[in-house]
Amino acid sequence: MTIDLSIIELLPPRLQFGGASAHSDPKAGLLAAGPFDLRFGSARKDHVHVGIIGPADQVAAARRWLERCSHEVPVLGEPSLLKRPFPGFAEAFHKRLVAPDASSIALASDANDDLAHALEGDAYQAFQRVVNLYADAHARLASRELNRPDVVLMCIPENVFNKVSSVERKTTEEERKRARAIRRARESNQLDLFGMLEEVEQTPEDFLKRDFRHALKARALRNRLPIQLVTDALLKDKERNQDPATRAWNFAVGLYYKAGGVPWRLPPSGPDTCFVGISFHHFRTTRRAIVRSSLAQAFSSDGEGFAIRGEGVPVEPDQARNIHLSEQQAFELSESVLDEFELRTGGAPMRVVLHKTSHFDPAERAGFAGALKDIPIVSMVTLVPSLFRLLRYGAYPPKVGTLCTINGDRSFLFTSGFMPELGTYPGPHVPQPFEVRCLGTESALAAAQDVLNLTRMNWNTADIRGKWPVSLSFARRVGGILDEYGDDSPAETSFRYFV
User: What DSSP character marks residue 43?
Assistant: First the structure.
């Protein structure tokens, strides 16, 4: 039997920044040209207003960290392509960091320790009391008509995370059965050798436990004011923490995006596109019924992102991981995405690319096609972690962007591997590629280039080592936040609330 093997190396995306130059590494681009929204001119504010909530000592530590980030933060040891000095927030983003005393709320001090009282007793009850304490303070900042922060730092001390970062739900037998079914479905996936799907899909632990981060973000979503969680891992220089400059880079990019900034974007190349990641998550209704809802995480060509939850469907006893939408559900979810896209961009896309980790069945294909019938180009792309391996001469694995096609039929894309921008392979094990399966008029090559491009569109970090496209990479977190949010649909859908 003859095997036809085709290998090409896709170029990393050349991201756009504030100036004319393009770069594939966000750190290099921000240093050279500033953030993309410099192009907005006078419509752009000259500062980021930061609120701070937490114990008095951590509020003070957060202020010191913001002051530190206002200046250059050197790397420990020799600088490298992987470890670059942080130039200072104003130097990188052309905005000042402003954190007035009036925008800080201390939850614990020498005179009053509401946080210690909230932590007393049973962990599950303490969880809700602590969430309420932070959320009530956040609501006070969010309700301001004047001097309202752009983003709020939620400072969480170690003793709080130790007790309430994740607590067991008071579950019913039906809920425990559903968790076992999720576990069996995950264990049956033999292709996911390194647990890549755990990054994007709900786990049994997600279903059986409440997550403190998700609960706080759900309350911030309700208050319509983004938050950034802050711990000692960011604020303190400890041996087990990241290098200070790396921490500053990642913190600053995430803060800038959540405060309304646009750090970088993909260059326009072809028709205006809406990328949509489709995933599924178990939710509990207010009556404790278990439903499985679809989630759509959508992004325009310029990086604007939003999240929408589809209609919940009752869970069937024998339902496995590869759940599918009905034709009507696929139709309605697509319509909701198009409506939100048009609201945000002023028009309909010319191209829609749908991403999933399971195949598109006939009902889904019919529903998506019906809702998107007026869109000139529609592609349905499945990304499956694969056991396929590729070796190359030398010490390093294949480059990021390597696309191997076998017999013109099956295509495998490496989104992890050797990175020329870093001069090394920054991973712990042999890279695992995705098999890229594409339905529609476009080729697997076009689908693979889209996936590679979207791995660089995570505006929550300066790190370029993400394996998943942003259309799918936050699915697990989005589902957890919306589970905590409740049955009703959020008034705000912007992705900056979910990262």
Answer: G
Q: Under 8 Å CB-to-CB from 428, ≥6 apart: which residues?
A: none
Tokens of 462: 């300066």
CA distances to 32, 199, 406, 435 from 413, in Å: 30, 18, 12, 6
DSSP 129-141: HHHHHHHHHHHHH
Give the separation between CA 308 and CA 103, rounded to whole angstroms.
31
Nearby residues of 90 by Cβ (< 8 Å), 6 or more positions away: 70, 96, 97
CA distance 317 to 484: 24
Q: How many angstroms separate the CA atoms of 478 and 483, rounded?
A: 9
Q: Would you say 177 and 207 are in contact if contact means Cβ atoms under 8 Å apart?
A: no
d(CA 17, CA 2): 47
**CA-to-CA distance for 400 and 414, rounded, in angstroms?**
5
Tell me the per-residue pLDDT of 283-303, one tens digit each, with 9 for 90 and over. 766 555 566 678 999 999 877
What is the dihedral sign for C-alpha 252, 39, 466, 197?
A: positive
Residue whose entry in the numeric block shows the structure tokens 């991981």: 321
Longest dimension (CA), the chain: 80
Within 10 Å of residue 357's Cβ, how many Cβ atoms? 24
What is the spatial distance between Cα 244 and Cα 65, in angstroms, rounded to a whole number?
10
pLDDT tens for each residue of 27-40? 999 999 999 999 99
What gap in Å lies between CA 468 and CA 456, rounded to an integer? 9
**CB atoms closer than 10 angstroms to residue 210:** 20
Q: What is the chain's alpha carbon radius of gyration, rounded to the nearest angstrom?
A: 23
CA distance 289 to 277: 26
Residue 286, φ and ψ in degrees, nearest 5? -60, -20
Q: Choose among 170, 166, 164: nearest CA to 134.
A: 164
Per-residue pLDDT band at 327 (split at 50, 70, 90): very high
CA distances to 31, 85, 103, 105, 263 from 235, in Å: 23, 17, 19, 18, 23
Q: Is the pLDDT of residue 23 over 90?
A: yes
Cβ proximity of 309 and 482 under 8 Å: yes
Place of tokens 């001119």: 41
Contact 274, 305 (CB under 8 A): no
How far is 473 from 388, CA to CA, in rounded Å?
Answer: 21
